[in-house]
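Task 17 of the worksheet. Students: predict the tertiary structure of the chain below and write it out as structure tokens. Keep your answer in the requested format; marks are given for formatting as well as content.
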Amino acid sequence: MDTFDRRSEIIRLLQDRGRASTRELSERFGVSEVTIRNDLELLEQQGWLERVHGGAAISPRLLAEQPFAVRQQQHVPEKMKLARYAVELLRPGDTILLDSSTTVFELARAIAGLNAGGKRFPLRVVTNNLYAVGLLAACPAIELIILGGVVRGETGSVVGPFATEMLRSLHADKGFFSASGLTLTRGFTDADIREVEMKRAMLAAASQVYVLLDASKFDQQSFLSFAPLSAIHHLITEAGIPPEYVTACQQFGITLSIV
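Model answer:
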């Protein structure tokens, strides 16, 4: 395991368990405690953890991930409004990627609505969002591709190396994403490294990247960055976002839709 992978695994372990000792990490990864201390020092400088006596703990300053069922009940009217706008950007025959966020789940619901009551709106949909799969599987006009891997029951998502490897062989016209937070310095962030790895792989597979983000997510940050603002093509949000984000979108040539 190289240095980057080891440090990523340290972050993942701390996220799952909260804290770990230097000795435990040394034995787990087969490296010296000096090497682990160097890893922890760097990760602390980057704001991903805090050093504690004998080891490290996840940083309490960063937003924690919440289960899908909890997040689904937050800002529902805003998410529905963003989804209704985004669905109008689709064209029959598009190949699209949908991430595992609750906001993009609302887009999946809107797509199902396009295919309700005998209507047909053909799409190829690639997703790791099992809740979206449950909605779209009943739509005969939709070719549905589920990314394979490890199921995270609390989020209803599929993650892991099998899924990211599958994405390397795929291409989509459009990818739709959301995030736990957005800042100008750290870009789009999310709470779990496995979800971040999936989002990065999806971003790489999409020709056009759309982000649906309600106003509450601006100037908020979570555990890990998965993309700078400059990496996207279209930001769909609401009125009342900080003006510096409007300026940044203009500077980066990003289409900004206020709905």
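Marker's comment: The mean pLDDT is 91. The chain has ten helices and 15 strands.
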